[in-house]
Write a structure and sequence with these properties.
The protein has 11 helices and 9 strands. With 324 residues, it is an alpha/beta fold. The protein is globular, with a radius of gyration of 22 Å. The termini are far apart.
Length: 324
């Protein structure tokens, strides 16, 4: 019978002990061993980018680490997502994404990731209603007026990209109102600029990029897609006020790390993100942009995500939206 020598057993024990010690050291040292990259799934200026940059400095202050923001746009966020999926599960590469994270696996023939298996959900960030706006040259002031005008005039609308909730919200309105408005997808940061410049007559976007343009008079706000009005724009009606009862659409933002990241690191990152979101500066910054956040745990975010993925899969299917 084969027997392991006492010397081999001792060596194996030392190696195992070293691995455990290194793992424990890596967890206890986070996030001070090297900079933490917040990899944003969209271009600079997009709402997701605004969220990441609003929190990065505060995260550095809270943890004593160095948090840097890097943008990796493309393919509706899939390029950044697959990059983080392949990253070392050590807490030093964090994906900052929008609700598109939950939408894309049903929107693309191959998004390159499984939203429920390839990542550890860390924290749900702020959320914001979507909003319909028009160029000031469009002679409408209300949603019913826009619907009637769309029945007579060929309009097009800009959204933050194929399959985003901003796209799907307008498609749901088109179905409910029996109107045809041509969809023109843009990168999130460019969608608002398109309608301001008059390249499209209408925009369906999240609130952060639109609010400054509305307040500057460069856009007219028609309706928000949540069930209730937004405190930031109390004079802008909710879409439900016009009889569209099934709407309560939001763009939300979230933080993810690769599956296999040590739970202790996930918990520490979650605690830091919650503290940052609860700071006065960040609360005020989010409020100015029509966003709000609530304290949540990784488990709560995971439960939320497991409801969002099938919810948006059903909307994608009913709308017929496809990105490929």
């Amino acid at each position: 019978m084969f027997q392991i020598s006492q010397r081999t057993q001792v060596l194996a024990g030392l190696i195992l002990g070293s691995c455990v010690s290194l793992s424990s050291w890596a967890q206890s040292d986070w996030p001070k061993a090297k900079p933490v990259t917040l990899l944003v799934a969209f271009a600079p200026g997009a709402s997701t980018d605004i969220v990441a940059r609003s929190l990065s400095q505060k995260l550095s202050e809270i943890t004593g680490g160095n948090f840097i923001v890097e943008n990796k746009g493309g393919a509706g966020g899939n390029i950044a997502t697959t990059q983080v999926k392949r990253a070392a599960p050590d807490g030093y590469t964090v994906l900052v994404h929008s609700v598109a994270f939950a939408v894309n696996p049903s929107l693309y023939a191959d998004a390159g990731y499984d939203a429920l298996k390839d990542f550890a959900p860390v924290a749900l960030g702020p959320k914001t209603p979507n909003i319909f706006t028009v160029n000031p040259s469009v002679p409408v002031k209300t949603l019913p007026e826009l619907v009637e005008a769309a029945k007579k005039t060929p309009f097009n609308y800009a959204s933050s990209g194929i399959g985003t909730t901003t796209h799907l919200s307008m498609e749901r309105l088109k179905t409910a109102a029996k109107i045809d408005i041509v969809h023109v997808p843009y990168q999130p940061a460019a969608a608002i600029n398109a309608v301001v410049a008059g390249h499209t007559q209408i925009a369906s976007t999240s609130m952060p990029p639109s609010v400054p343009m509305i307040k500057a008079g460069k856009l007219k706000a028609i309706a928000v897609t949540s069930a209730m009005r937004s405190p930031l724009l109390p004079d802008v009606p909710s879409i439900t006020e016009f009889g569209y009862k099934e709407f309560d659409d939001y763009t939300w933002f979230g933080f993810f790390v690769p599956a296999g990241t040590p739970p202790a690191v996930v918990e520490r990152l979650n605690a830091a993100i919650n503290r940052a979101m609860e700071s006065t500066e960040v609360v005020d910054r989010f409020a100015q942009l029509g966003m709000a956040s609530t304290h949540n745990s990784p488990a709560e975010f995971n439960t939320f995500l497991r409801a969002e993925v099938p919810k948006w899969a059903a909307v994608v299917k009913s709308s017929g939206a496809k990105a490929d």
